[in-house]
UniProtKB/TrEMBL annotation:
InterPro entries named in the record: DNA-bd_dom_put_sf, MerR-type_HTH_dom, MerR_fam
Organism (species): Paractinoplanes bogorensis
One Pfam match: MerR_1
UniProt keyword list: DNA-binding
Source organism, top-level taxon: Bacteria
Residues annotated as domain HTH merR-type: 1-68
SUPFAM superfamilies the UniProt entry points to: Putative DNA-binding domain
Protein name: MerR family transcriptional regulator
Amino acid sequence: MRIGELADRAGVSVRALRYYEEQGLLHASRSGRGQRLYAEPAVDRVRLIQMLYGAGLTSRTIADLMPCVDANVSTPESRARLAFERDRIDAQIAELIQARDRLDAVIEMSTSPESGCVVAHAE
């Protein structure tokens, strides 16, 4: 499939796909005209890359881990790296829960009409 189709199917921009290729995270073959061509598994790979970025992993970390993902191999080093990242994500989750709880407290306090606090709604 061509780059535009992959972008549509994976829900990312063409620019993102080019970036992933520059970072060594995604590989394409080339047509006779030089157009990028991707195999069907590229859709799942891009979704995985997106998920890992969304979890806060850097492109360098993702690039370091992808050979193990591709080979379906777990090494002590890759498990340690993944455990580190999982622990970092768990810490972020804990911080987000605290932020949510504080917002809940503010919402609870501001339900009375005499609170006098007006906040513009952001969209």
